[in-house]
Amino acid sequence: MLLPEILTCLGIGVVSGVIASLCGVGGGVVMVPAFVFLLAMPQKQAVATSLAIIIPTALMATTQNSRNDLVNWKIAAVTALSASLFAYYGAGWLKTMSNETLTRVFGTILVVFGLRMLLQGKA
Length: 123
Fold this sequence. Notes:
By secondary structure, the chain is mainly α.
C-alpha cells in the first residue's frame, strides 16, 4: 500500500468508527461507499471488506457500551443468533449478485431508512 492509500484508509476508519459508535450502524454505511468511491473497490469487495472490519469495531464499541450499562444482552443474544445465521446465507447470495444490483440494493436501503428516520424524527 502506498502512503495516500494508507491515509485514505485511516480517514475512512476514523469517520466510520465515530459514526458506528454513535449510530450503531457498524460503519458499513460509511465504509462501503468510501471504499467504492475513494479506493475504486468493486461493490462486492467493499461489502466483504466492511464486514471484516465490523468485528473489531463492534467489539471495541460494545466494550465501552457495556461498561456504560447500555447493552440489552437478552435482545442482543436472540438477535445475534438469527442475524448470524442469515448473514452466512447472505454472504453466499453476495457471490451471485452483480456489483450493479448490489449497489442498487445498498443505495435503496440507505435512502429508504434514512428518509424514514428523517421524516419520523424518532430515536
